[in-house]
Design a protein that fits this description.
Blueprint (H helix, E strand, L loop, with lengths): L5 H5 L13 E3 L10 E4 L15 H17 L6 E9 H7 L7 E8 L14 E4 L19 E5 L18 E5 L9 E4 L4
Parallel strand pairs: 1-2, 2-3, 3-4, 4-5, 5-6, 6-7
Antiparallel strand pairs: 7-8
Helix pairs in contact: 2-3
Length: about 190
């Protein structure tokens, strides 16, 4: 029996819909109030929305505090979303979340995704613009994965590995979203 509804299959499972609730967004750990779903925006600070972070030291402190929190509170979240540049350090900290069911990463520099294999409850994964990702074999360990969207994995030649995921209902593999590259897209397939 499919887990994804018709709308999720038609528009890809993680398609932005204004009419549906979205998780609270935070920058610092001090803004966290026990939510199990969050949007974390702890990098790329210093713009007009986050202008209180002026120095590199302040920005680094925010990131380190969040990484430490994620690594030491391993059962805090079921859903995390990152609309900012994901570093390897932040990626590795996120991969310590034992109850994570949904993960959305907009983009980043995380060449080694091996720790994603720790997320054995993950069902929904959107891993965006990972141009530096060296290999996708760790994704085959995500046995509960129902929906997978990958974008701009420039160093990957073989996308056959996700086919081994028996529960997968939606797969989207795309090139750079800002360029006319389009690798392939398979939605709502059955194995």
């Amino acid at each position: 029996m499919p887990v994804l509804n018709e709308k999720q299959i038609k528009y890809i499972f993680d398609y932005y819909r204004k009419d549906e609730p979205h998780p609270k967004s935070i920058v610092e750990v001090s803004e966290y109030n026990g939510e199990i779903a969050l949007a974390i925006n702890c990098t790329q600070l210093g713009d007009v929305f986050t202008n209180k972070y002026k120095t590199a030291k302040e920005k680094k402190h925010v990131l380190q505090e969040l990484c430490s929190f994620l690594s030491s509170n391993t059962t805090a979240f079921t859903e995390l979303s990152f609309g900012i540049r994901m570093s390897q350090e932040l990626f590795d900290a996120v991969c310590s979340q034992q109850n994570l069911r949904k993960l959305h990463i907009k983009w980043g520099v995380y060449p080694d995704i091996s720790k994603i294999a720790n997320l054995n409850k993950l069902e929904y994964l959107n891993i965006g613009s990972g141009a530096s990702v060296q290999g996708i074999e760790p994704l085959t360990h995500l046995k509960k994965l129902v929906a997978l969207s990958e974008e701009n994995f420039q160093k990957i030649d073989d996308y056959g590995l996700p086919a081994s995921l028996e529960k997968l209902e939606s797969l989207s593999v795309e090139g750079d979203g800002h360029e006319p590259q389009y690798i392939c897209k398979v939605i709502g397939f059955s194995l």
